[in-house]
Amino acid sequence: xxxxxxxxxxxxxxxxxxxxxxxxxxxxxxxxxxxxxxxxxxxxxxxxxxxxxxxxxxxxxxxxxxxxxxxxxxxxxxxxxxxxxxxxxxxxxxxxxxxxxxxxxxxxxxxxxxxxxxxxxxxxxxxxxxxxxxxxxxxxxxxxxxxxxxxxxxxxxxxxxxxxxxxxxxxxxxxxxxxxxxxxxxxxxxxxxxxxxxxxxxxxxxxxxxxxxxxxxxxxxxxxxxxxxxxxxxxxxxxxxxxxxxxxxxxxxxxxxxxxxxxxxxxxxxxxxxxxxxxxxxxxxxxxxxxxxxxxxxxxxxxxxxxxxxxxxxxxxxxxxxxxxxxxxxxxxxxxxxxxxxxxxxxxxxxxxxxxxxxxxxxxxxxxxxxxxxxxxxxxxxxxxxxxxxxxxxxxxxxxxxxxxxxxxxxxxxxxxxxxxxxxxxxxxxxxxxxxxxxxxxxxxxxxxxxxxxxxxxxxxxxxxxxxxxxxxxxxxxxxxxxxxxxxxxxxxxxxxxxxxxxxxxxxxxxxxxxxxxxxxxxxxxxx
Length: 528
Fold this sequence. Notes:
The chain is an alpha+beta fold. 30% of the residues lie in helices and 18% in strands. The chain has helices at residues 2-9, 11-18, 30-40, 54-59, 84-97, 154-164, 180-186, 193-196, 218-221, 223-229, 267-277, 306-316, 332-341, 375-381, 400-404, 433-446, 479-490, 494-504, and strands spanning 46-47, 78-79, 100-104, 124-128, 136-139, 145-149, 168-169, 203-209, 215-216, 239-246, 248-249, 254-262, 285-292, 295-302, 328-330, 361-369, 392-397, 420-428. It has a 7-stranded antiparallel sheet with strand order 15-12-14-13-17-18-16. Strands 5-6-10-8-9 form a 5-stranded antiparallel sheet. The chain has a 4-stranded mixed sheet with strand order 1-2-4-3. α1 (2-9) crosses α18 and α11 packs across α14 (375-381). The model is unreliable at 1-27 and 523-528 (pLDDT under 50).
């Protein structure tokens, strides 16, 4: 913490020294930025709108067609760095020419902020880490670890680790096309969080290009910045080019099951019971729930055999009626493929497929639940999934390891007392009026039953509806505007994040509509 306050004392000096780089956006020089880049990195790594591959690379990681239309603000160029020095060059040229950068690893930002701007007239470029910075290097000596570049997908990480040693894995998200950089930056919930914590809880080191264009590791960046990047969201403190992560042990055989219950089979009562059971199950067992239509689907990963799982389920969750006939035993890597694709014939190599589709529009929102919702209320929730435009609700249990970590240990604060996370997702093609009305209405309906003061949200399920930064006349995002949404994502950790931002990037070079704003105030920030 002493490092943080020493840095805070230098804010005015740094601001003065930095002002010649970036004063006001109107002074941005797109031609100057590209010329600067071409003097520092190979030309084939810089794609301008006139480049034949510009559109293909831009769309390669866009997951939502809502953010790829004629009204979408496009980057003035895309930089596809092949090593950290190219990222450094992009930052130095951006600072010199008044061009901000948005970094993209997998393109899963639900609001598309890694490759587009919601602000009209903003001049920016995209640093596409997923194009070339995707290496994974596994070290099995002593504590098993891996260095993984931010552009790698989760599927690429899982595949490389498991092929190196089938007894090793990494606790991160279900979707294999998610980019490592964004996922780790926001925390990273997984089917093994209850056993091993969030993805961010297993970060040991990182290499980051800061606002001065310097490449720093954990020792050089200091513990305050290292704290901030492990769950404080991307796009605020610099561009992380690679991460050193702790790998975890998994048994040779794991067990997956899926059991569905329709409304007429008592789905509401079983979901209500799940709320009490799931957070208190043995940490090796995670059961999440997908609600869609008039059906609740219980999807589980157990780090062990079916023979051990069935008695646990019979004892602790008999209401589900799970039996040995529901079990599928396999390797952990096979489970990662099965849980995502739910097709036993899908090969594990499918985890390496990064292809995307622009066929479906989506909108997502999130909540956390700290008190179980009564069964009678669930009977009123389920009819929402018969309405025109209805999507789905995903419930992911907490407890176990993730619930035992102090709320201030990382920026991710949703720890002790949280039963589960809710992700609401609306889908549509063509006119999205009904789908957007549905998700907004359900979110409003759920308000009395979820966390409050603040109504918590998960930064990796980004939602601009809960607030956006305002930019002051000095071209810096305001703390008060950021606090509106920031305390929902980060609770009591938001002020410390803003203090780290002020120390490390006082001129707010790295920013988007929900980036951490800089704050220098009289209050001391709490230690982790």
